[in-house]
Design brief:
A hairpin with a 2-residue loop joins strand 6 and strand 7. By secondary structure, the protein is mostly beta strands. It has one domain. It is globular, with a radius of gyration of 14 Å.
Length: 118
């Protein structure tokens, strides 16, 4: 594993390159430093506080529960099976597009605390 901090317009991001075997479908995944989920089943693991930092102590499985198209880019919505944390992650070109389309047919149940206040 190798890490590199990147300034992304004031947002914290650490590029962490690591390979892994998916805990859900056993797919062997070659990490790019931007890989945060399995490209086959789309499941993830709750390991980051900020993208790439690996500082979350939870370690729960992140279930993909929805997908949406924003600014011509697919985003997958996740909920941690252990602690309930929810977040969006960008889809990648290698992701199983059929699964993304399937997820996009489900309404995204965003909790009131996650919605922007007007």
């Amino acid at each position: 594993m190798s890490s590199q901090e990147i300034n992304n317009g004031g947002r914290k991001f650490t590029r962490t390159i690591e390979n892994f075997i998916c805990a859900v479908c056993d797919t062997e995944v070659k990490g790019t430093g931007y890989t945060d989920h399995c490209p086959e089943c789309l499941w993830s693991v709750h390991v980051d506080v900020f993208p790439g930092d690996r500082k979350a102590g939870c370690g729960g499985l992140m279930e993909p529960i929805g997908a949406t198209l924003k600014n011509e880019k697919w985003r997958i919505y996740y909920r941690c099976q252990k602690c309930g944390h929810e977040r969006f992650n960008d889809a990648s070109q290698d992701d199983n597009f059929e699964k993304i389309i399937e997820l996009s047919t489900r309404p995204i149940p965003i909790r009131p605390s996650r919605q922007k206040r007007r």
